[in-house]
């Protein structure tokens, strides 16, 4: 996690603001779109309990869905999410939806349906591709570029034409490496 979002938070609270920390809401920060219930073996200490904190009065046994302690991150409206981590959904560039695993297919692009929510993953993919389209369009306003393909027909409601099929990602192209991205967003 050092180079990923988790590393940014760890660095901030270890180096920039040492001695200060806060437990972030896992459904809103670094949202993984994953199941919120511990579902390991029955003999595990936290089996059936919520993965979320804070734990009510330090009582882990009360930290259960039956007690209303779990918010299902998989169903949270994406407008309430601040940052996303694509672990359970897979990366948008994979052009793959997390369908239930096919036991004959050993690739890890398939995920158990209970782990994640295909629709929510798709909406996060769409948001990613909306940002990508915005970047490409803003760059095109500044310099002449060859626009990337947007004619893919793999779940266009989620991948917005940037995927021709599962695994068939259309790369972003035409933006020179020395292009100053600050010029389009002002930071």
TrEMBL record:
Name the record gives this protein: Uncharacterized protein
Top-level taxon of the source organism: Eukaryota
